[in-house]
Amino acid sequence: MAVKRNRKKEWVYPVAAALLAMLTAQGCRKETPMPEPEPFGREPYTLAIPSHFPLPESAADNPLTVQGVALGRKLFYDGLLSANGKVSCATCHRQELAFSDGVAIAAHGVSGKPLERHAPALFNLAWHDTGLFWDGGSKNLESQAFGPLTHVDEMGMDLGLLEARLREDATYPSLFGEAFTDGVTAANVAKALAQFQRTLVSGNSHYDRYILNDTGTSALSEKELHGLSLVRQKCGGCHSGELFTDNGYHNNGIDDDFSDGSHEWIHRGRYRITLNPMDLGAFKTPSLRNVMVSAPYMHDGRFATIGGVLDHYAKGIRDTEVTDRLLYQNGDGPGIPMTGEERTAIIAFLHTLTDEVFLNNRDFSNPNN
């Protein structure tokens, strides 16, 4: 029986669509609507959004402010947030790797033990409105932060101790006071981290300049254009739109055994959250943006190269009841057929999605150096 799951929901917002059209006509970037003025001198932070991107949903309960973003950036790079004072968010999320860490399974947390999932890249998180983590187990960036902060094998931090450390620090009390009415709290740590991470917008690659017809830098080669066409045709069911992800959850056929000895069912994917049997082995679709600098791939980092990923989709997909039918492009069987020439073109195009401006943006780098 054909199974169709995780189709992207499409909603029509006439007002948002009209606003988007107006902003697109005015320039190559657009700005989020200005929020209400912040009290106590806090300055609203205006998020610059590429004009060909959809508008993100605003976080009404944690609006971006200049002070909050700056605090979140400082916290992101500070080992003070971990039990041993040495592990920061940036330990597993390096800017030059699109805020991924370059290893399949990290073991650089406070315990030194290997984790059970691959650290995802961090960018365009303002559009992640279907949940965070590989299985969507966290509703938003604010709640997500407490996972790594408190996990025994990651940062291993007691939240009461964290608050005490920050209150005793020479600079943090005043920074928290500038950013939040109630000062140093664990909740505000999460809010500040979330604000900074929402500013990590990547939309200035060679591909983007081509789409925006940036004179002098916009041309794609014939091979790259062929690769773009192939990605839209063969991969666009999941890696859709200008974000190159549907932010959905799909079983992409990398496993056919979903028994999981872990007490947290960590390898059962989205099923762990929904308890829907059709979500067994389904994991969140990562963006193809910056994919050539964020290896290895998949939720467990099992594929070291993009060639290994393409091999899987061409001839390695497991045929199960829950394998996503979007992958059945080989007659009635699973697989995405591609010739050697097509593989070469796809890889050539994927290189055009690397955003060197983002990878080197000093606004996202360590302010503590």
UniProtKB/TrEMBL annotation:
Query: Residue span of the signal peptide, if any?
Result: 1-27
GO molecular function list:
cytochrome-c peroxidase activity; electron transfer activity; heme binding; metal ion binding
InterPro entries assigned to the protein according to its UniProt record, in alphabetical order: Cyt_c-like_dom_sf (IPR036909), Cytochrome_c_Peroxidase/MauG (IPR051395), Di-haem_cyt_c_peroxidsae (IPR004852), MauG/Cytc_peroxidase (IPR026259)
Q: How is it modified after translation?
A: Binds 2 heme groups per subunit.
Q: What is this protein called?
A: Cytochrome c peroxidase
Entry-linked Pfam families: CCP_MauG (PF03150)
Origin, by domain of life? Answer: Bacteria
User: Locate the Di-haem cytochrome c peroxidase domain: which residues?
Assistant: 67-214
Q: What binding details are noted for the cofactor?
A: Binds 2 heme groups.
Tell me which species this is from.
Parapedobacter koreensis
Q: Which residues bind heme c 1?
A: C89, C92, H93
Iron among the record's keywords?
yes
Residues that, per the record, bind heme c 2: C235, C238, H239
Q: Which GO terms describe its cellular component?
A: cell envelope
Which keywords does this Swiss-Prot/TrEMBL entry list?
Heme, Iron, Metal-binding, Oxidoreductase, Peroxidase, Signal
Where does it reside?
Answer: Cell envelope
Required co-factors: heme
